[in-house]
Amino acid sequence: MESAKVEHGTFHDLRRTCITEWLENGLQPHEVKELAGHSDIQTTMNYYTATRKNLLDKARRASSNALGDVA
Prior knowledge:
Radius of gyration: 16 Å
Number of domains: 1
């Protein structure tokens, strides 16, 4: 992690970021479960589906587009 200029981090931090990115970029939860090696889909859903600001922004834009900016 030193070459990436990351001062504090672990391999698990990178794993968590990767799995979350997979979900945010369209992989289905059951696909991510398999790739991550989880035996239970709840592990994937409970620990790796944290809502990020950019995901909320995308949802707001999609809703606004679908509703035609009624606000």
